[in-house]
Amino acid sequence: MRSCGSCTLCCKVLRVEALDKPAGAWCPSCRKGIGCEIYETRPGECRTFGCLWLADEQFPAEMKPERSKIVIALESGGGRVGVYVDPDTPTAWKRPETYAMLKRMAAVQAGRRGQVIVFIRDRAIAVLPDRDEDLGAANVAGKAIHYRQNMMTGRIEVEVTDSAAAPAA
Ligand code: SF4
Ligand code: SF4
């Protein structure tokens, strides 16, 4: 079993709605490299969160978030791979090995209408098998990202809406 050890990066890169904490800013309750100062009373979204590196020992050791500067999480029942990047190293997801891994994930996700989304603070970037698409400030409360396959071209089209409701077909 892996443990977080001195990693606390998710307390920086993720948005925490219950605390009104924006993505990419350290939580005021985080003691960097040590842990949560309000561990017993931390919000539910913190309690239930675990990154992919922590959950899967087959995930490369060098991808430990405190080293890679990226927190990767499975969300929406596996429908989304969220890639949360430390804004102090905003190109960390473009390192060749990491980028190749994200593209492989994008190919797998595309086969089941799933997503791979890079988040850097409020900004979201869809990683698709054939391209990357900058979605702008989509990582904020009330925004939702939808994929839809164009039946004529086979191309995946990405849309950001103002609610979790799916866009009209
Ligand atoms: S990013 Fe992963 S390894 Fe790091 S503290 Fe969060 S859950 Fe633990
Ligand atoms: S409340 Fe604790 S676990 Fe949640 S983001 Fe803040 S420091 Fe991290």
Automatic annotation (TrEMBL):
InterPro entries: UPF0153_domain
Highest taxon listed in the record's lineage: Bacteria
Protein name: Zinc/iron-chelating domain-containing protein
Naturally occurring in which organism (per UniProt): Alsobacter soli
